[in-house]
Amino acid sequence: MMNKPMLHNYNRFVRSHRYKTKCKEIERIITDNVFVNAAVCDEIASTQEKLLIVREECKFLTKKLKQFESPSGLPVQIDTTPATKKSTPRKKSNTNVKIIDFKDNKDVFKDANKQIIENKKKRPATKRKKYAVEIQEPIANGNVTVYNFGQIIYDTPFYYSDCAIYPGGYYATRTYAHFRNIFSKCTYHCKVIRAGSTPRFEIMDHDKHFKVTGLSTDECHSHLISLINKMLGAEDLIPSNGNGDRFFGLTLPFVRLKLQEKPESKFCTGYIPLRSQMENNESELKAENDPSISFEGLHACLNRFRSRR
């Protein structure tokens, strides 16, 4: 039989051997995970590189499409016949050239210089093509009036969401309660400003006494609603409900359909297009009566609150 010290040493040896095997197994698992992680990182890097190449190709194809697209929307017929140079007869040089003395005919040279300057002024200036949707007359729909649909930017995902597109240069107005006197109406100017990879949103009143700029429509809209709530003496009497896009008019069906007509909208991955005018019309009409975006809805909400008291 083994004595107590030998038994104690044997138990210690067994325990240490067991822990060593567990440590080796854990080290092997960690090493495998490190290699797997490195392989995943390499795969992500290669996928991102492919995505950049595809985006550049999409840009190039969009530019080519715009070049072959007529302003009326009709397809342009391209002549594929090889171009042949037309032989133009050379003008015969006039041998009877009169030599004019500068000293004796100064007025002749002055008149020639004047004619050259006038011809340069009369040349029409070449106009650059703009691919933004410009409106000749403002389009009004309820409390929203759209003046410019702007230009769709699909390079970064910050210029669109699943239910709205934020085109750079978009400009619209909305009639809502004044931030200092809720019983009077105020026209708020809503703009989407192109600022690099992320857009800037702006709300400004007609008299330019109120102006807020933010990184999202909800940020600007919630700031306006907070001012109205402070004037009413309650912080959360009128909730904003995340209606920033709706306040700007970007979720209105006619705005979404107009932006979807542009070829750049097809490259806005993640945006769910609106199929028809009547698809989202009823829900938008109900949402337009929300007290955070409608003057009439705000006063109806206040009347209900007073009647409860």
From TrEMBL:
Keyword Lipid metabolism applies: no
GO biological process, alphabetically ordered: regulation of cell cycle
The protein's matches in Pfam families, at most eight in alphabetical order, are given as: FYRC, FYRN
Principal localization?
Answer: nucleus
- List locations, semicolon-separated: Nucleus
The name of this protein is Transforming growth factor beta regulator 1
- On the tree of life, the source organism's domain of life is Eukaryota
Q: GO cellular component annotations, sorted alphabetically?
A: nucleus
> Keywords of this protein's UniProt record, alphabetized?
Nucleus
| Record bears the keyword ATP-binding | no
Spell out where the chain crosses the membrane. Answer: none
